Amino acid sequence: MDKVYFCKENEFKTKKAYKTLKSSYPDLRIKRKGCLGKCKTCKECPFSLVDGKVIKSDTSEELYYKLNKRILKQSV
Fold it and tell me: In this structure, which long-range contacts are made by residues 21-29, counting pairs with CB atoms below 8 Å and at least 24 apart in sequence?
């Protein structure tokens, strides 16, 4: 996993996942960007862009779980 981006416009939905992921993986490139161009997804639910692919969920906790699982899977 190279880059994980969170949209600043979606910050209120992804704040918990962003902070937890950033503290759990300080060596990983995890950033907040202005607009990721996924406006429809951004309005609907918490999401993240991982290596160009959208990862979305119903809650911030679920988003963190999905991202964490993906990171662990790629590190093996």
Answer: 21/64, 21/67, 21/68, 24/68, 25/71, 28/1, 28/4, 28/71, 29/2, 29/3, 29/4
